[in-house]
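dumping this here before i forget
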Amino acid sequence: MEVVRYASPYPDLRSQQAYPYTLRFDLAEAEPEVDLVSEFEGIENVIVHKAAPAFIQEIYDNLPEPMQKCLTGMHGARVRMHFIAGVARYRISYLMASLVLFDIFGIGLEQPNKLKVLYIMNNNVGIETFYQHLTRTFRIWNFTDEQLDSVLNIMRLYPLDGEVHDIVTTDLVDELVTSENANRDKSLHQFALRTLEQNQDPQQYRELKQLLASVADGTRLGEGDFAKTKTNMKKLYRDTFNGFSGVVVTTPVGASPLLVRESFKPDTIIVDEAATMDEATLSIVITSERQKFICLNTTFTYI
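structure:
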C-alpha cells in the first residue's frame, strides 16, 4: 500500500525521531548525545581551543560563567537540539549575538564563515526588538557598515504574501524600501532590490524590470501583468535567499512558506521563547534539511 506523504519536503528519519522527544522529553526516545560544538569550527576554536582572534576570545572569556555554560552545554545535545534555560531577557540577545560572532569569525577575521541563521521570534514586535539589539551589539564591537553588509547581514522577514502583494501594488520602485507594510530597512525587499541591481545577466530579470518600469509613472498593473509580476518577484526572492548569508529574523508565519523553506537552508535555527513553542514552529525546526545545530532559548528548564 502506497503511503501518502503530505509534508513538503517530507521530514527525514532524523526529524521523525526528534518529534516524539520534543513532545515528552523522554531520554529513552532520544538519540545519543551529539557534540554540536565540534560541528562548528569557529565556535570550537573559541570555546575549546581558545585560539580565536584576541577581541573575540576576550568577549567569550568575559561572559559570566552561567552564560559560558549555556554555550558549552552544546557538547551534549539531544536530537540535535540545545536548550538554553534561565538567561535573563536582556542577556539573551547578547548571548545569541556572541554565538553568531564566534561561528562567523572564530577562525579568523580574514576568513569569515558564510553562515546562514534563521532566528524565529513570537511576533513582529520581537523582530524589530531583536534586530535593533543585534545591530547595536555588533556596532559596539566596532563592526563597520561594510562588514554588516557582507557576512553580518541581518534581514527582517515578514509574511511573504504581504511582501509580494506590496511590491506589485507600489507605484514607484524607490518606494519599495519605505512602504507602509513594514520597516523596509534590512527587509527582504531591500535585499531583493540589491540582488536585482547587482545582477550582471541582462536577460535574467528582464521581464521583471520591464514590469516595474511600467508602473514608474503611476500606471496600475493590469490583471495579467499583476500575476506576471508576482511570479517574477517570487523568483527574485528565491535567488535572494539562495545567495543570502547572515541572520534572517522572522516569525513562524514568516518562516513557513514553501518558497522560504526551499530556498533558505539555515545552518543554525534559533527559536526565541521555546516555552511557548507551538507545533507549527516545532515543524520548522525539526524538518530543517541541514539540521546541524538548533538552539532554543527559554526561561524554563527542559533538560
